[in-house]
Specification:
291 residues, TIM Barrel, 8-stranded parallel barrel, 13 helices, 13% strand
Length: 291
């Protein structure tokens, strides 16, 4: 679990159904840009508005298109431990390389309940599992103490931290010291900071639209070119500043459309961007790729 792993959007067609052509084009495009892994059915992948049947269809489509070239991390998380286990087993049968399991949401579980939830899932699966911490959306932050316990499980291979707080990511790195456990930044503004602190990579949504730049952050860091890596980290800020123009993942999808890949619109209730917002997205993308 290392490098730049794209938190991939789910392409939909004009009817709002999964677009097989769009999915294949997006996967091929990201493979061509040297991305280190694909993270599907996450927040930007709109897993929360997809039916189980669609999730299975989409996962199979992506796994087949990738064909073992890079790891595919598949989001199987949900509120029911039993349902997560069942879905995780189905994704495993489809050929997923690893599972991503978001913390239960709506009802905030206690630390004891979280540890039990993740342990039961890990006990039931046969492939590596990545915990997904996004307290802004779930209402609960996975504690350092919970990670200390869970990092010892042979099937729990790491955690994606989308708290947006470097100190939280660092606490996970310290908690898992001595274990075969990976900490990945889920906040694109902290890719380089996380790497400096001991993270092994990042699950980056911006790499859907700016794969060259995100990949350069990691590669330059590997080469010890810290100043150049920092410059690349700062280059994604203009794009991050426009993400507030719409609800996730509307802006990201518009940017990917600008790059020539038809990924469709986000599902309702997320509305399409206004003409003015689309113009702003286009202007920022031109700054990156038409200079």
């Amino acid at each position: 679990m290392k490098g730049i792993i794209t938190a991939m959007v789910t392409p939909f067609d004009h009817r709002g159904e999964i677009s097989k052509q769009g999915t294949k084009e997006l996967v091929r495009y990201l493979l061509g840009k040297g991305i280190d892994g694909l993270f599907i059915l996450g927040t930007n992948g709109e897993f929360h508005v997809m039916e189980e049947k669609e999730k299975l269809e989409f996962a199979e489509l992506v796994i087949n298109e990738v064909s073992g070239q890079i790891p595919v991390y598949v989001g199987s998380g949900g509120n029911s431990t039993k349902q997560v286990i069942e879905l995780s087993k189905q994704f495993t049968q489809l050929g997923a390389d690893a599972l991503s399991v978001i913390s239960p949401y709506f009802v905030a579980p206690t630390e004891h309940e979280l540890v039990a939830h993740y342990t039961m899932i890990a006990d039931a699966v046969t492939i590596p599992m990545l915990m997904y911490n996004i307290p802004k959306n779930t209402g609960v932050n996975i504690s350092k103490e919970a990670v200390t316990v869970l990092a010892r499980h042979e099937n729990i291979a790491g955690i994606k931290d989308s708290s947006g707080k470097l100190e939280n990511m660092v606490s996970y790195i310290h908690a898992a010291e001595g274990q075969s456990f990976n900490v990945l930044s889920g906040s694109d503004s902290l890719i380089l900071s996380g790497l400096k602190a001991g993270a092994t990579g990042a699950v980056a949504a911006t790499s859907n639209a700016l794969p060259e730049i995100d990949r350069a952050i990691y590669q330059l860091w590997l080469e010890g070119k810290i100043a150049e890596a920092e410059a690349m980290q700062q280059r994604i800020e203009p794009f991050r500043s426009i993400l507030k123009l719409g609800t996730i993942p509307s802006v990201l999808k518009a940017a990917i459309q600008w790059r020539g890949i038809d990924v469709g619109a986000a599902r309702l209730p997320v509305q399409p961007l206004s003409s003015a917002s689309l113009q702003q997205v286009e202007a920022v993308m031109k700054e990156y790729y038409e200079q």
